[in-house]
Amino acid sequence: MKLKKIISAVMAAVCIAVGSTDSLSAVTETSNEHITKVSGTFIQPWLYATYDEERWDAEMQIMKEIGIEYLVMGDVANHNTDGTWTVYYPSELDYLKDYYVYDAMENLLYYCEKYDIKLYLGMGLDCGWNSGITTEEGRAANREYMTKCNEITTELYNKYKSRYPDTYYGFYFVTELFNTYYMETDDGIDAYAEGLDEMFTMVIDNCNTLAPDMPLLFSPYVNIFGYGYSCINIDRFTEYWSEVLTRIPFRDGDMICPQDSCGGGGNDIAHLGEWIEGYRNAVDRSNEARGTKLLLGTNAEMFVSPDASRMSNPHGVSYVGTKNVWDFATRLEIAEPYVDSLYCFAYPHNYSPYNAMPEFHENFTHYLETGEIETESPAPPTVVKTEIVTAENAPHLQLSFYGMTDNTAVAQTNIYKNGKLYDYLVAGVNIGGSGSNTTQNVWIDYEFDLENETAVYEFECIDVCGNISEKSSYTVTPDNTENLASESSEPNMEEPVNWNKTALDYLTYTVSGSSIRITGCDKSAEEIVIPDTIDGIPVTVIDWYAFENCNKLKSVTIPDTVTHISRYAFAHCISLETVNMPKSLYAIEQYAFYDCPKLKGVSLPENLVIIEQRAFCGCDSVTEVTIPASCTTVGEYAFLDCDSLSEITAQGTETSFGYRSMGYEYDNGYGIKKGFHIDASGGTAVDYAKENGIRLKSDIIRGDINADGDFTVADLVMLQNYLVRRGEVIDWSAGDLCKDSMLDVFDLCLMKCELLKNN
C-alpha cells in the first residue's frame, strides 16, 4: 500500500509545518511499491559559489544517489526591482555586462556533463515582472521583458550549446505564474490566457529558432490559502489552465512542472492531490486539442517558510526550515499517479548532507530503497538552564535546554508558553560556509517580565522524519530566572501540563461598537462553544477567515446572538462535522463553509435572508438542505460539488437562484449530479429546475429508473444490468431508494421488496 493511502487517517496529526502543534508521531509503513527516485531538482548559483573540485564531486554524487537526471538553474540574470541586474555569466549584452557577479555556468556545465545530468538554463528573470497582462500597458512591459529573455537565451545558447551539446538540455521559463482571480470569470480567463499566450509564444518562437528539439520547462504555483488575489476553486482553475495551455504553442517534450506550494504555505497535503489532478486534466485537454504532448511534472517544495511575524528573522533568528522526510515522501507519493516526472525544490539546498543535517539525506535514501520511514518518536529535553543575559541592550530571560534525543536526529523544537505555541527553533542550513547543522538549544524570551511574571514553558521535539515527541515542561518564576543548571545536571523538567482551556483560550475577537466580532481561532482547537457575550457585550459576527484552515476543528456551537457568518469564516475546515446555524442568522457570506467535506446536518434557520456564492461548495457530507421562504438570494455555485446532497427543498417562491447554485458537480467539466432533485411547489425554484434540466421531486415515480411512467420489473432489470456494468439508467434519482446518493445493491433489494408488496 502506498503512503498516500494512509493520508486521510493521519493528515490532521502529521501534516507537520513550521510551528505545528500536533502531538502525535508520524505514521508510515513498509511498502513494496514506493517512489524510488526523484528525476529533477533546482539549484541556485549562490549556493555553489565556493565549491571546489572535491565539493562538486560530493554534491553531484549525492544527487545521483536519489536518481537526479535533470538540474534546473534559473538565476542566470535577474533584473532587480531597483533597475539593476545580478548576472551569473560573462555577458556581453550592454545592459548586463556591468552587473556580472561571477561565472556560475562553467563549473555547473562541466560537472553536469561529468555526471551525465541534463541542465535546463533560465532565460532571465524580471523580479518585478508585470502580471497585469490584461492591460495594454502591462502587456507592453511584458513584451519588453520577453525580448530581453530572448536576448539572454540566445547569448547563452551561442556560448555554451556547441561546447556542451548533450548537457545543455533545455530552456527554463523563470517567471512564476500564480493563481489569479481572473480565473473566476470566462472573460477573465480569456484576457489572461491571451496575455500569457503572447508572452510564451515570443520565447517559444525564439527557442524554435535556436533549437526546436530543446524542451521548455516552467514552474507555476498554486496558492489556495491566499485569498484576495487568487482563485481557490479547482473547477475554475482547471478551466483556466485548459484554456491557457491550449492556446500556447507548446511542443512535444515541453513541461509544466508546478510548485506544490506546500513549503511556502499556500497548499497542504490534504488538498494537494485534487489540485495536481486539476493540472493533469488541463494538460490532457490541451494536448488533445493541440495534438502535441506537453508533459506534467511536480515540483515538491522542500523548504518551510515562516509565518508573517517571523519572516523578517526577528532577533536575528532564522525560521526557515526543511520539510521532514515523511512530508516530502508523502507529497511525492500523492503526485506520482498524475505526473510524468518528479522534481523538487531544492535537494542540494535542503537535503544535501553538506548543507543540512545529514540525517535528512540518509533517511530519504533509505525510503527510496525500501519504502520505509522510521517511526520512533524523539525524547524531549530533560534539563533546562535559566539565566539572565543582556540582549539587544537589555536584560532578558534565556533558556538553554539539553537531553533531547532521537535515533535519527532532532530537527525542530517547538516552545509553548502557558499552553500556547509561542516559538520554535529549527536546524540551520550551511550556506557558503556559514550556519549550523545542529538544532539550536538556546532561546531568549524577549517578553518575559523578570520581576513579576510566572510562565510555564513546554518543549516538544520533531525529528528529521517527522516524528513528534511528548512534551516536557518547566516553570519559571522571578525567583528561579538563574537556576545554575548545566548540561550534566540532574533532570529538572516536569510532566506536561493538562491545560483546562475555555473557548476564549482559543478565540481572538474585536469589539466593534456595541458588539463583538470573532476574528480568529487557534489551529489546535477541536471543539469550540462560542459564548453569547464577552464581558457583557454580545457576539454578533463570525468575521472573515476566523476559523479558516482550522484542520482539527470538529464541532462549533454558535450563539443565537450571531447574525452574520462572514466570508471564508470556516473555509478549509476539513474535519468540521457539526455547526449549528443560529436562529438570529441573517447572512451566510461567500465561501463561508467552502471545502468542509465532513460537515453534515446543515439546518438553515427560518429567518435566513442571504446565502452567497460558494457558501457550501465542497461540503461532501451534507445530504439534504431546506432553503427557508425568508431567503431572497442563493448565490452562484452555492452548493457545487456537494457529493452527498441529493435533495434541496425550496420553501419560498421568489428566491433568486444564481448560476449553477444547486445540483451541479464538477468532474473535468460541469454537470447535473446524478440523483439530485428539487422539492418545490412553484415559483423561482421550479423555474430554476426546468432551466437546468433538474428533476422536481413531484415528478419522480419511485423506482421508475427507465422513465416510462411506471414502476415495473423492467426497472428492476435495468438496475441489475447497471450494477454489473451492462447498461445505464435513465432516471438515476428514481432508483436511489435509500436516499444515500448511490445506486447499489441496497436499492436493488428495496426495489424487489416494493414490487413484491405491490403485487
In words, what does this structure look like?
The longest helix has 25 residues, at 136-160. Strands 21, 22, 24, 25, 27, 29, 30, 32 and 34 form a 9-stranded mixed sheet that branches. Helix 6 packs parallel to helix 7 (269-290). The chain is α/β, with parallel strands linked by helices and 759 residues long. Residues 1-31 and 431-437 have low confidence and may be disordered. The radius of gyration is 29 Å and the shape is globular.
Helix and strand layout, with pairings?
Blueprint: H1 7-14, E1 40-42, H2 53-65, E2 70-73, E3 77-79, E4 85-87, H3 106-114, E5 118-122, E6 125-126, H4 136-160, E7 168-173, H5 186-210, E8 216-218, H6 234-247, E9 255-256, H7 269-290, E10 295-301, E11 303-304, E12 321-322, H8 325-335, E13 341-345, H9 347-350, H10 358-370, E14 383-391, E15 394-402, E16 410-417, E17 420-426, E18 442-445, E19 455-463, E20 472-476, H11 503-506, E21 507-512, E22 515-521, E23 527-529, E24 533-534, E25 537-542, E26 555-557, E27 564-565, E28 578-579, E29 587-588, E30 610-611, E31 624-627, E32 633-634, E33 647-650, E34 656-657, E35 664-666, E36 670-672, E37 677-679, H12 684-692, E38 695-696, H13 713-723, H14 732-735, H15 745-758
Parallel strand pairs: 1-2, 1-13, 2-5, 3-6, 5-7, 7-8, 8-9, 9-10, 10-13, 22-25, 23-26, 25-27, 26-28, 27-29, 29-30, 30-32, 31-33, 32-34, 33-37, 37-38
Antiparallel strand pairs: 3-4, 11-12, 14-15, 15-18, 16-17, 16-19, 19-20, 21-22, 24-25, 35-36
Helix pairs in contact: 4-5, 5-6, 6-7, 7-8, 13-15
